[in-house]
Design brief:
This protein is of the alpha+beta class and 703 residues long. It is 12% helix and 28% strand. Strands 1-31-32-33-34 form a five-stranded mixed beta sheet, with no helix packed on it. Strands 2-37-36-35 form a four-stranded antiparallel beta sheet, with no helix packed on it. A four-stranded antiparallel beta sheet has the order 3-4-5-6, covered by helices on one side. The chain binds calcium ion. The site of calcium ion (CA) has 6 residues, from loops.
Length: 703
C-alpha cells in the first residue's frame, strides 16, 4: 500500500482547499457577494497610495519589469524583525510560479490548473476563487507541470490565460467572468503558462508547445471586449497558403524542407514587456521543432530563439535579435526581459537585457535591437566559445553535428523563466543561475514527427558510453547572482544548497529570493550578505512581491515545488522540498506560525507485488519509462512533486494498464497513453517500476 504521503488518493496532487473560516469560495452570486462588496468597499478605503508604490499592479511591478520596489519599511536595519503575517493553503501540491498582483490591499494570483484567487493582503482570507476547469485529460500537452505565472489587471478586470489556451476576463470585485476567447486551436498541443500582459489597452498573450510541434504566435485582444486586434506569428507557415507578411516571407528563407508540417515552434511562452514611450512590445521565442538542427535540415530558423520587438499598435515586426541561430540545444529566449536606461561608454542607452538559457547575458538597444554587449554569466559554457561583434554566437567545433555529445548549459538552461530583478540604485541585476549543468545531446536520426507526443528528436534509447560519462560529471550547482550589466561582470554570488533558485524581488536595499529547499532569504543588494531567512516548508520557485496595506509593508510569495525540474527530479538537485502549495506573507513583528504538514514518504517503498519479468523486459521498461513517464514521475522512477510510482498500491499495480491505457485517472491529471504505448510496453514499464521498488527496499533482492 501507499505509505507516508498525505492524501494519497489525489493522483494529480490537487488537494481540497483548507477553507479556514471563509465560506464564500465559488459562490460569488449569493448572499456572500453582498458581503464581498462590503469587504471590497472597506478594502478600497484603506490608505491608498497615490504614488503607486503601495501596489504591485503588473507582472514586473512596472513596465520596465524591474521588480524593484522603493518601499522601505523592511530594510537592512529592520529585516531581522521580519516575521510571518499569515499563510494560506491553496489546495495543491504542484508547482506554483505566479507573481501575485496587489491592488489596494487585495492580492490576485493563480495556483495550479490556472485557478485564480483573490486574497485579502492583510489577513490571507480568500475573497473569491475562479476555477476555469482546465481539462485534466490534456495533461500530456502541459510539458512542465500544471503551472500558471499569474494574471494581468486593468481597469477593473483580471485577465487569466488558461493552460488549455483560453483567455478570460473576470470582474475584479467578484471573479465573475466577463468575456472568454479561445486563443489556440484546441486540436493542437498548445498550452499557456504565462501571465497575460497589458499594452495600449490590449491584453497580450503568447503560448507554449514547441516541444510538441506547434506554430508559435503572440496575440493582442481588446481589453474591454476580447476582440482580437492582431497576431504576430513567430515562424512562417505553409508557403502554398501565402505568407501573412513580409516578415514571414523573409523568415521562410531561413528554413529547410517542409518545416511547416511540425508547426515550426518558436513559441513565446514567457518574457513579454512593453515600452509605452517607444510603443514597442518585446517578447522572447522558444526553440524550433524538433530540437536538433541536423534533423530540421539547417538554417537559422527565424524567428525562433529570438528577442523580438513588434509595434504594439499593429503587431508588425520592428526588429529581432536571434540569440541562438539554428538552435540545437533547446535554448529558448523566453527568459525575463528587463528594460533600463544605462550609461554605456558615457552615453545613455535605452536597453533591454536578458540572462538567456544559452548562458550569455545580453544587453541590446531596445529602439533598434542593435547588440551592445554579451558575456557568459556562468562558467563552463561549452556550446559556444563567445559572441562576434554583432552578438552572433561562435559555436564550438563539432558540437552541432549529428552525433551524441555532452553540452552545457543543459536543456533547462543556465537561467530559465524565473524572474530577475534590477535595482536602479545599485545598477545590478539579480537572477538565479545554474552552473555545471550538462546535457546528453543525442539526436535521433530516425526521428519521425508524431502529432500525439513530444517531438524533440532526442534519442531516448541512447545507451552508449556517454551515459556513464554523464553519471560521473560533477554535480550541477545553483547560485544567486548580482550582475553588473554595464561591465558584464559578476559583482557577487551566493551559492545555493539547491540547483534551482526562485524568482527575485528587490525591495529597496534588499534582494529577496526563495529556493527549492523551501528557504526564503533576504540579501543586502550591494554585496549579497544574507540578513534574514525563513523555512517555508515547501520549495519555492515563484518571485516574491511587496506591497503596503494600512501603512504596513508586506512581502508575499507563492510557495510550491514542481515545474519542469521539480517533476523530472534529476539526481543531484539538492535537498528539494515537495509539499503543500500556499501563499505566505511577512511583515515586521509578524508572529504567525506556519502550519506545514510533512509531505514525504517516510519509509522505503515496499513493492505491492514481486515482478517476475526478466531483466531484459525491465530494461525495455526503463527506456520507455524515461521517455514517457519521467517528465512527470521523475528520473529513475524517483518522483518529485507528483506520485512516486515505486510506492504504488496493489490497487494501482493491478489496474496499471487501465490507468495508463484507458485513462481511468484522467480526471486527476493522469492522461491516457493509448496513442503512444501498447499493452506489452505498459507491462514492461510496470515491471521496471516494480523492480525499482524492489531495488529501493532493503532486504529484498534486486532484479
Ligand atoms: Ca523549449
Amino acid at each position: 500500500m501507499t505509505v507516508g504521503r498525505l492524501w494519497p488518493d489525489r493522483v494529480d496532487g490537487t488537494l481540497p482547499i483548507l477553507r479556514l473560516g471563509y465560506p464564500c469560495v465559488r459562490r460569488p452570486l449569493t448572499f456572500c457577494s453582498v458581503l464581498l462588496v462590503l469587504l471590497f468597499t472597506a478594502a478600497c478605503g484603506r490608505a491608498p497610495s497615490n504614488d503607486g508604490t503601495a501596489n504591485w499592479l503588473m507582472y514586473g511591478r512596472t513596465d520596465e519589469d524591474h521588480r524593484f520596489s522603493p518601499l522601505n519599511q523592511i530594510n537592512e536595519h529592520t529585516v531581522a524583525k521580519l516575521g510571518l503575517a499569515w499563510s494560506r493553503e491553496l489546495g495543491t501540491t504542484r508547482g506554483l510560479e505566479a507573481t501575485p498582483l496587489v491592488k489596494d490591499g487585495i492580492i490576485y494570483t493563480t495556483a495550479s490548473w490556472s485557478v485564480v484567487h483573490a486574497i485579502d493582503g492583510k489577513t490571507g482570507a480568500i475573497l473569491w476563487t475562479y476555477d476555469p476547469k482546465v481539462p485534466r485529460e490534456r495533461a500530456l500537452f502541459y510539458c512542465c507541470d500544471a503551472i500558471s505565472r499569474g494574471v494581468a489587471l486593468y481597469q477593473g478586470k483580471i485577465y487569466v490565460a488558461t493552460l488549455d489556451g483560453r483567455l478570460i476576463a473576470l470582474d475584479e470585485r467578484t471573479g465573475a467572468m466577463i468575456w472568454i476567447v479561445n486563443t489556440t486551436d484546441t486540436e493542437k498541443p498548445y498550452s499557456i503558462t504565462s501571465a497575460p500582459r497589458i499594452a495600449r489597452g490590449m491584453v497580450v498573450i503568447g503560448n507554449a508547445g514547441s516541444e510538441y510541434g506547434v506554430r508559435g504566435y503572440v496575440s493582442a485582444y481588446d481589453a474591454g471586449t476580447g476582440k482580437m486586434a492582431w497576431r504576430f506569428y513567430t515562424v512562417p507557415g505553409d508557403p502554398s497558403l501565402g505568407f501573412e507578411s513580409g516578415a514571414m516571407e523573409a523568415a521562410a528563407k531561413t528554413w529547410k524542407g517542409e518545416y511547416w508540417k511540425t508547426g515550426g515552434g518558436g513559441t513565446a511562452w514567457e518574457g513579454i514587456v512593453y515600452d509605452p514611450a517607444l510603443d514597442l512590445l518585446y517578447f522572447g521565442t522558444g526553440n524550433p521543432t524538433a530540437w536538433y538542427r541536423a534533423i530540421r535540415g539547417g538554417g537559422d530558423n527565424l524567428y525562433t530563439a529570438c528577442i523580438v520587438a513588434v509595434h504594439a499598435s499593429t503587431g508588425q515586426l520592428a526588429w529581432y535579435f536571434q540569440t541562438t541561430p539554428g538552435d540545437n540545444w533547446d535554448y529558448d529566449a523566453t527568459q525575463p526581459l528587463v528594460q533600463a536606461d544605462l550609461r554605456i561608454n558615457g552615453v545613455s542607452r535605452k536597453v533591454i537585457m536578458q540572462a538567456n538559457k544559452n548562458g550569455f547575458f545580453y544587453v541590446l538597444d531596445r529602439k533598434t535591437g542593435a547588440f551592445i554587449s554579451g558575456a557568459p554569466y556562468v562558467k563552463g559554457v561549452t556550446w559556444a566559445t563567445g559572441l562576434d561583434g554583432k552578438g552572433r554566437p561562435l559555436e564550438a567545433p563539432g558540437v552541432a553535428e549529428m552525433k551524441p555529445s555532452i553540452s552545457s548549459p543543459g536543456f533547462d538552461g543556465a537561467h530559465n523563466w524565473n524572474p530577475m530583478a534590477y535595482s536602479p540604485r545599485t545598477g545590478l541585476v539579480y537572477f538565479p543561475a545554474k552552473t555545471g549543468t550538462r546535457a546528453l545531446h543525442a539526436p535521433d536520426a530516425a526521428w519521425k514527427y508524431n502529432p500525439n507526443n513530444v517531438n524533440l528528436g532526442f534519442d531516448a534509447k541512447y545507451d552508449g558510453p556517454l551515459g556513464a560519462e554523464m553519471d560521473n560529471l560533477p554535480p550541477a550547482s545553483g547560485a544567486l547572482l548580482g550582475w553588473d550589466p554595464v561591465r558584464q561582470k559578476e559583482v557577487w554570488n551566493v551559492k545555493s544548497p539547491t540547483v534551482e533558485g526562485g524568482g527575485v524581488l528587490v525591495a529597496n536595499s534588499l534582494v529577496f529570493q526563495g529556493r527549492a529547499d523551501g528557504v526564503l532569504a533576504a540579501y543586502r543588494a550591494t554585496d549579497g550578505k544574507e540578513l534574514w531567512n525563513f523555512d517555508a516548508g515547501t520549495g519555492i520557485m515563484a518571485p516574491p512581491v511587496t506591497y503596503l496595506v494600512d501603512g504596513i509593508q508586506y512581502v508575499s510569495v507563492m510557495v510550491g515545488w514542481g515545474g519542469g525540474p521539480g517533476l523530472i527530479n534529476p539526481p543531484g538537485t539538492g535537498p528539494v522540498k515537495p509539499g503543500f502549495g500556499r501563499i505566505i506573507s511577512f511583515r515586521l513583528d509578524g508572529v504567525a506560525r506556519l502550519k506545514a504538514p510533512l509531505f514525504a514518504h517516510k519509509n522505503p517503498p515496499q513493492p505491492a507485488i514481486r515482478t517476475t519479468a526478466s531483466p531484459q523486459v525491465a530494461h525495455e521498461g526503463e527506456l520507455l519509462y524515461e521517455f514517457n513517464c519521467s517528465p512527470c514521475h521523475g528520473v529513475n522512477a524517483v518522483a518529485g512533486a507528483l506520485p512516486d510510482l515505486r510506492y504504488s498500491s496493489k490497487e494501482v499495480v493491478d489496474s496499471f494498464e487501465e490507468v495508463v491505457m484507458a485513462g481511468s485517472r484522467a480526471e486527476r491529471g493522469m492522461p491516457s497513453f493509448n496513442k503512444l504505448l501498447n499493452a506489452r510496453q505498459v507491462r514492461a514499464i510496470r515491471a521496471y517500476i516494480l523492480s525499482r521498488a524492489q531495488e529501493s527496499s532493503p532486504g529484498l533482492p534486486s532484479r
